[in-house]
Design brief:
The structure is a homodimer of 316-residue chains. The first copy, chain A, has 14 helices and 2 strands, in the order H-H-H-H-E-E-H-H-H-H-H-H-H-H-H-H. With 316 residues, chain A is an all-alpha fold. Chain A has a single domain, classed as Farnesyl Diphosphate Synthase. In chain A, a hairpin with a 2-residue loop joins strand 1 and strand 2. Chain A is globular. At the A-B interface, helix 2, helix 4, helix 6, helix 7 and helix 8 of A face helix 2, helix 4, helix 6, helix 7 and helix 8 of B.
Chain lengths: 316, 316
């Protein structure tokens, strides 16, 4: 591919990402309206405001984008995929709200704004995260997400499995343990294999689930498409190595959050295991592996290919 | 009813409660086994241990009991109801783990043992709560809970709606706000109506959902049985007034947690609104309203009637 065509591809991707981000923003805004829904007794104001703070006004919305584009590739309904992708985004946002807490990563800034516990307080941030996680499953259970109950419950299963003990939350636990929290403060030295497992759980599982969820909306069960499974896993891994590199190379202004935190905390990253140059090579290898996984698809998969390259090459 | 027959009824109830509690304990133990399930990459040890600490070894297990007995009343499968009730119990336990956190109610003891953040640390307790909530939906999504995907997704919807912003978590937010957290520390004086709304959300919603979930397993949709809806709401309200009274009258040893905390924190309770004697009358009125709601059922509903009386008269 010539560099000119790569540029066009990037512009198409950014335009398409922006369009999905706008649609997701408006859907999340509607889901977090002040009006109680059927079976709800009230929507208490400070909690609702904290949930909105944690969810609205930013983010690349890469996860819903993956759901929408995967569904589109397989002939699924993009509107249904958008709702399912909104559930993934709610899980992603809840995890950021809780990760930022003083007892966890203790961050004051996120997306260029105060974190939820800074803008509100810790108790409200804990409850806001809990409520965002709960809302994710509420959204998936809604018939508006997909007319088939069998599909909706498969979405619930995929999202729950990717998010909990054996996925994202478990990966976060490995991450804290690697900082040495349970060994009197001395960071543990993890093997490269352990770091890859940690990252596959902490970040990879939810990104891979975003792809599977898009496929499910189109009627393709998890694991039924080995190509898409391989694509999601490689993209998820590439995304996290890129994150590790950005923590070193990007400015806090570009990222909208503090940088250079990983080394300070003794976090286990692929930069610490492979060095900066090695990590960049690995990032690009993973991104190309994601692209290669889609070899059997034609140009209709170009957007997903571009997304894999973007996950690696992004500057924020 | 003579006092002798009431005694027999109570003994039957306690025996049946103990049987369900034993079955739930063993089911939760199996759900929290070290072996990763399909789609899980690993089950990190400190997190799994914290989840087990927060869930196993105690509790009346009233919520799964209500699910099982409601399903039994309506001809549903008690084993399926037990699994669905385990999901409700997981949500209940996650809420206790998070409520006990220093930023929330700051409790050191629960069920006579250290709370999760005391036995582990705050970060692990936050992640354990998150993972228990996530596991609840994973359990409901499992075909072992019910063969019909339509029923399972209705279970998800009912549990999510009762647990989140418009239910339990929202009620907890009202509770913290009533302590004056957002008004510089001065407790707000809530109206009796506001207190009832707070309690209907904080405690009532999940207890009422336990009944609805049992009905769903038996194929009865939420709201389809006005009698069961009224029963669940009245039982939930009676349970919370009884809790308010126990906070004053019980010993920490009997409750397995600190007592006399509500007045100290300026918590809004029906004891503060109605006085102790008034709250007891209200508790008994609500419990009898729950019993009365089941008037159209025969002796096959005796266990649910006994459960409503137990929710009010329990000593711990």
């Amino acid at each position: 591919m010539s560099s000119a065509s790569a540029d066009v591809e990037t512009q198409d991707l950014l335009l398409s990402l922006a369009r999905t981000a706008e649609a997701i923003e408006s859907l999340l805004d509607a889901l977090l309206s002040p009006k109680p829904r059927e079976g709800e007794l009230a929507r208490p104001e400070p909690l609702l405001a904290a949930m909105r703070h944690g969810v609205l006004g930013g983010g690349k919305r890469l996860r819903p984008f993956l759901s929408v584009e995967t569904a589109r590739l397989l002939g699924g309904d993009p509107e249904q995929a958008l709702r399912a992708g909104a559930a993934v985004e709610l899980v992603h946002c809840y995890s950021l709200v809780h990760d930022d807490l003083p007892a966890m990563d203790d961050d004051d800034t996120r997306r260029g704004r105060p974190t939820v516990h800074k803008a509100f307080d810790e108790a409200t941030a804990i409850l806001a995260g809990d409520s965002l996680l709960t809302l994710a499953f509420d959204v998936l259970a809604d018939p508006a997400t997909h007319p088939s109950g069998e599909v909706r419950i498969a979405l619930v299963r995929t999202l729950a499995r990717a998010s909990g003990l054996g996925g994202m939350a478990g990966g976060q636990m490995f991450d804290l343990a690697a900082e040495g929290r349970f060994d009197g403060g001395a960071p543990r030295s993890l093997s490269e294999e352990d770091i890859r497992l940690l990252q596959a759980m902490k970040t990879g599982a939810l990104l891979a689930a975003s792809v599977e969820i898009g496929a499910l909306v189109a009627g393709v069960l998890p694991g039924q498409s080995a190509a898409l499974t391989a694509y999601g896993k490689a993209l998820g891994a590439a995304f996290q190595v890129a994150d590790d590199i950005l923590d070193i190379e990007a400015t806090p202004e570009a990222l909208g959050k503090a940088t250079a935190k990983d080394a300070g905390k003794g976090k286990a990253t692929l930069v610490s295991a492979l060095g900066l140059a090695g990590a960049k090579r690995e990032r690009d290898r993973l991104s190309e592996a994601a692209v290669a996984a889609l070899a059997d698809f034609g140009p209709e998969a170009d957007m997903l290919r571009a997304a894999a390259r973007f996950a690696a090459a992004r500057k924020s």
